[in-house]
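Archive entry. Fields below.
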Amino acid sequence: MRRDRTVVLVGVILAALLAGGPFLPQWAMFIVTIAFAQGLVALGLMLLLRAGLISFGQALYYCLGAYAAGALGRFVGIGDILVQMLAGALAAGTAAFILGFLLAKYRGIFFGLLSLALSMILYGLLVKNEALGSTDGFNILPSTLFGIRPGPDWVRYTVMASAAVVSLALALIVHRYLRTPLGRLAPAIKDNEIRVEYMGASARYAVHVKYVIAAVLAGVGGALAATTVGHIDPDMAFWTTSGEFIFVTILAGTGNVIAPFAGAFIYGAIRTTAYDLSPNTWQLSLGTALLLIIVFLPEGLWSLFKRHARHS
Amino acid sequence: MPVILDARGLCKNFGAVTAAAEVNAAIEKDSVVGLIGTNGAGKTTFINMITGYIKPDQGTIEYEGRDITPLPPRDITRLGICRSFQIPQLYPSLTVYENMLVGLGIVLRNARLAGFFHRREGDVPGYGKPAHEVAEHLLERFGLADYRDRNAQVLPGGARKLLDIALTMVAKPRILLLDEPTSGVSAQEKFGMMQMVLDAVRAEGATVLFVEHDMEVVSRFAQRVLAFYDGRIIADAPPQAALADENVRRYVSGNRA
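PREDICTED_STRUCTURE:
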């Protein structure tokens, strides 16, 4: 059997990060870790986008994951990175399973705006909630791994390594899912649901499953972001956060499960550079970057890689 | 021949329009039945009721002794009743081959032969071959092999019709309902196309009901004709007898006598 190039690529990225991590400056490890967190959300959005659905409210699950991780520390006293990510996944997954019964019926703009509305409801609830710090949010317990608290120089590396292992493992699971009949149904649902039904499949069920998977990924991403930044607040559910995730997803393209992480990393790099060069107009630079990509690379950055692969 | 599909007392009204009034029809296994009638006579409504797209106001539809009236389209499809459409329903952004593979994937998944935890996909039920071989086989049978890697969006009209029918065959249907399979196809090509479709379908063994406006096509390919008028079946007989029927000549085929 032919070697799956995506699996090889994942292996190479993981090995490079784990081996090269200790030599990276702290700020670089921070950017990489946040890129994994956002990449996970974008990976979920990619699943939905393949089926023709755009969620303008994926920050809902990102925020839920972050607050689940935070609550674990605040109320139970657990700061383990892996447990936090698991809690984020469970909280987001459960919410999406329930809300999915409603959302899986909708398509197009209705799906987008309904998801946006739900995320803003969470935002509203968090802002009013004194126990969860209202608009200020609250701080996250220092990260531990398997009960061990890494030394101050090793915290960033520990978090980044955990992020890399979990994110890339999830990417491989999604990669596998995309090859199952249910995963391959996405473009068919986008194209023609009547035909999907008349071939014996339920488009609504398929969308529901994708919605839950996307939420779980966003929940893990949220927990990861919480433990990396060390602080959470309701802005994580605000619609501009959702907008950022859509930006990353479009930047990346839907070609491959690695693309969202690459997209998130490049987004972080553009944003950091733009902010560094001109703190007042960084949004302008970001907008220009997105415009150029939509015009010249309508299928996202991944199409560059694909074009290259075809020529070689 | 035993009856495979039995429609009894089907009634359906859309407001003041009667789309079906006491429609009774018992379809025998492995027969080829032509449905004729002017536009609005109730042919497509009949097909839509059988496939679960429209629920009759009254009456039942039994498939091999089982009442399928309340089932949704996808469950009826899973039982082996498949349909093609007057306007082909394809996946336009996918290639012809990918269109077939999506369909075969659904079949494999419904049979629990493929999924996340399956190391490799099983053979397609009814064909005993892996999905990609079944796809090639069906494309060959329906004369679509040359279009294999073309996007469904850019296919010529006849090929779209054929792909629409080929897609129904992936599930190895027991009953195939073809809604105007030759509409939009030139008069010269109609017979060749119908012959190819029926050869392909009969090679896989299925009962066929087809809607058709061309009476020459009907008399050549149907073994039995159901003539619809105003939501009613006004004639149910072999083609020669049905087309000679006075009511059929008046209301369906035009008074050519």
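CURATOR_NOTE: The CA atoms of residues 3 and 53 of chain A lie 31 Å apart.
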